[in-house]
Amino acid sequence: MAAHSHLPLLLLLSLLAVVSAHNITDILAADPQYSDFNNFLTQTRLADEINTRQTITVLVLNNAAFSAVADKHPLSVVKNLLSLHILLDYFDNTKLHQITNGTTLSTTLYQTTGTANGNVGSVNITDLKGGKVGFGSAASGSKLDSTYTKSVKQIPYNISVIEISAPIIAPGILAAPPPSANLNITALIEKAGCKTFASLISTNGLIKTFQSTADKGLTIFAPNDEAFKARGVPDLSKLTNAEVVSLLQYHATPKYLPVGSLKTTKDAINTLASNGAGKYDFTVSTAGDSLTIHTGVDSSRIADTILDSTPLSIYSVDSVLLPPELFAKSPSPAPAPEPASAPSPSPGPTPAEAPSPLPASPPAPAGETPDGAPADAPSTAAERSTSTGKNDGVHVKASAVLTVTVTALSALLISTTFM
User: Fold this and answer.
1) Which pLDDT score, from 0 to 100, does residue 265 have?
2) Which pTM was predicted?
3) Per-residue model confidence (pLDDT) at position 414
4) Angle (nearest 5°) at CA 33 between 93 and 395
5) Percentage above 70 pLDDT, the chain
6) What is d(CA 137, CA 142) in angstroms, rounded to the nearest whole number?
7) pLDDT confidence of residue 38
8) What residues have CB less than 8 Å from 69, skipping those under 6 apart?
9) Which H or E run contains 221?
10) Cα separation of 266 and 62, whole Å?
């Protein structure tokens, strides 16, 4: 009986945990003046990190203040800068004006990277005279060059989003060179056992494209040498030069996708070969720690991580990725030696009207998340808006179901407690 009495409480707590979840992308999407900041949180995958944290404060910058710095630096530097604006503590308007002794230091995500020495990865927050609050690097000699502007969104005491006037610049944070500056992508791929793929991208001029794209975000899926020897692999000599280039481009996407992002991505992923919606893309499915790419023609397991260094990821895969745009029916296999002849069996009676076997269907791509999934933490502006579209309808239904469920479980908990 006691075990049953705790069940409603556990269910209620789990539902409340869902309610308290947040989504920084949805919060910032409500105001277009934060679009640049929001886009870079997505590109650097810091949005995923923010959404997994239970207590966090994001110091957001409007487009004018942020682009003045971000436009001058590669993605790896922008990621470090953004990380310095993500505090691992909760600060809202009230707490900012009630700081003990008027000043405090807060640790940031930048401190967790292991590249920040001393207090470089912390932020100094000081309650100034006249009701202002100043922000600056906690490194010795740094100035409070930024001030609190306004509150954007709070979910106490889970996430707080507040706007500040200017970027916080820690010593040396803008000086780091991009990881791809002195990186030999071809050598890395060859060393990982993908010599055939490395040779193909070099002879077809793709390595230059990869190198120039890497600074802004790139993920490469390199088939290992055994993949090119597998049965059914297309005979590249029967493809035009343009088709070979498209096939190679299909093995790279202009986004930085670490393993964590691949595991959470439900939508189709565009590639360097994509030239329109639904063209030359693929999906990824997850089974435990295993990741599989589905093209619509074949599937391939991601075998190993060759490199993961923002903004570049390189993986080895077990099979050549075949896009439907080139191999909608079946690829022309590379020539193979004829098998040894064997005596023909004596003819036997043929069953009447025996159906001819159908070719095997290609594996279906991983399921996609339907559009209009409810936001984890809608902004205040979104909450006041009137639902007019399909997506809004989904939000209304989800809220209604959740409200009814929580109410019913609360009543059940109360009745069980007094029985």
Assistant:
1) 83
2) 0.53
3) 46
4) 80
5) 71
6) 6
7) 94
8) 81, 167, 169, 174
9) strand 218-223
10) 29
Q: Which amino acid is at 363?
A: P
Q: Are 35 and 66 in contact (CB under 8 A)?
A: no
Q: How confident is the model at residue 183 (pLDDT cuts 50, 70, 90)?
A: confident
CA distance 98 to 103: 9
Both tokens of 13, joined, read 């707590």
Residue 353 has which token pair?
């009207």
* H or E element that contains 304: strand 299-309
Rounded distance, CA 13 to CA 205, Å?
56
Query: How many Å is the maximal CA-CA distance in the chain?
Result: 102
The token pair that represents 9 in the structure block:
């409480």
- Amino acid residing at 285: S
CA atoms of 37 and 40, how far apart (whole Å): 5
- CA distance linking residue 178 with residue 175, whole number of Å: 9
Q: Is the pLDDT of residue 361 over 50?
A: no
Please give the full DSSP string across 104-170, using - where no structure is assigned: EEEEBGGGGGS---TTTTEEEEEE-GGG-EEEEE-STT----EEEEEEEEEETTTEEEEEESS----
User: How are beta strands 290-294 and 252-253 bridged, if at all?
Assistant: unpaired
- 221-265 pLDDT per residue, tens: 999 999 999 988 989 999 999 999 999 999 999 988 888 788 888
